[in-house]
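Sequence, please.
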């Protein structure tokens, strides 16, 4: 089933500025800040609910999305902790707002279950991976997102904004119900795989497609018991993330994180590049200037990887 909804015009400057990144948030540790806030304000108990789809997506490889009955009934009334004066003015000028994880607030961006082969335009590795060295004994958030350019045939997305507690376990986001024509869609699949392999100084990695791992001199076997799966995050976007809050390395050294789709030929990254989504136009793929690690696309093997350096706490 493919959902198509008539798009409404959107003229909002700096929309992407308010859709802040939450790479450092461990999804398994999030709490329902909306319910807590409602109790604190004496407005009665609000049952927690799941996140709503705000960003267009293609579902493929056996992953299917069901249509929902949209309904926005519970307006957000605070708190607004952690926001700038500019963000507060934006919320006031463009409200009312309806928060994620609230029963009575249901919305759904456009999606496709067509299950047709896709050409990925760019891959976004989590900012934490690119900008921070993993530390022995500390959780390290692992996250990737695949984007497809749909500017020739835009799909509907819901305008989102940060409501409270940015980049924290209590982060709250919501929508004002305004649709816009999205030039990008993500890809959600049942086949995402991320493996972690330690590389010794003399390592000469060679990709073994049958085994789904790097082999060769100085290349250790992938870490066991590691899960990587689709997630619908608080911003309403389908991403791929690690279970149990991420990876907690035990030994320092160089490790290769490899992202690929196991057992499918429906998703191609042959012509993809590395980028960070920060808006609705292609010239906003900003990457960290002082990167701790640089991800690459391997078109020959239809995958992407990044070599990171695990360090010990000083």
């Amino acid at each position: 089933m493919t959902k198509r909804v008539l798009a409404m015009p959107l003229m909002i400057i700096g929309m992407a500025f308010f859709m802040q990144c939450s790479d450092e948030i461990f999804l398994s540790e999030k709490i329902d800040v909306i319910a807590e806030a409602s109790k604190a304000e004496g407005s009665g108990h609000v049952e927690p609910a799941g996140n709503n789809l705000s960003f267009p997506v293609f579902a493929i490889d056996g992953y299917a999305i069901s249509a929902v009955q949209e309904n926005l009934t519970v307006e957000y009334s605070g708190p607004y902790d952690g926001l700038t004066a500019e963000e507060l003015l934006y919320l006031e000028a463009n409200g009312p707002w309806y928060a994620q994880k609230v029963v009575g607030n249901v919305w759904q961006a456009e999606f496709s279950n067509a299950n047709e082969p896709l050409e990925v335009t760019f891959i976004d590795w989590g900012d934490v991976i690119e900008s921070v060295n993993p530390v022995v004994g500390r959780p390290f958030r692992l996250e990737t997102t695949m984007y497809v350019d749909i500017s020739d045939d835009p799909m509907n997305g819901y305008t989102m904004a940060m409501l409270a507690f940015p980049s924290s376990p209590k982060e709250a986001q919501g929508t004002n119900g305004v649709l816009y024509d999205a030039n990008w869609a993500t890809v959600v699949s049942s086949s995402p795989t991320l493996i972690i392999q330690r590389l010794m100084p003399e390592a000469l990695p060679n990709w073994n497609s049958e085994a789904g791992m790097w082999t060769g001199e100085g290349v250790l076997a992938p870490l066991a018991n590691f899960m990587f799966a689709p997630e619908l995050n608080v911003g309403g976007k389908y991403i791929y993330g690690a279970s149990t809050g991420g990876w907690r390395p035990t030994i320092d050294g160089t490790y290769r994180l490899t992202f690929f789709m196991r057992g499918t030929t429906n998703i191609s990254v042959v012509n993809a590049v590395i980028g960070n989504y920060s808006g609705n136009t292609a010239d906003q793929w900003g990457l960290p200037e002082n990167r701790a690690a640089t991800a690459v696309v391997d078109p020959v093997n239809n995958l992407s990887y990044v070599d990171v350096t695990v360090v010990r706490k000083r």
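Residues 15-115+152-181 form one domain.
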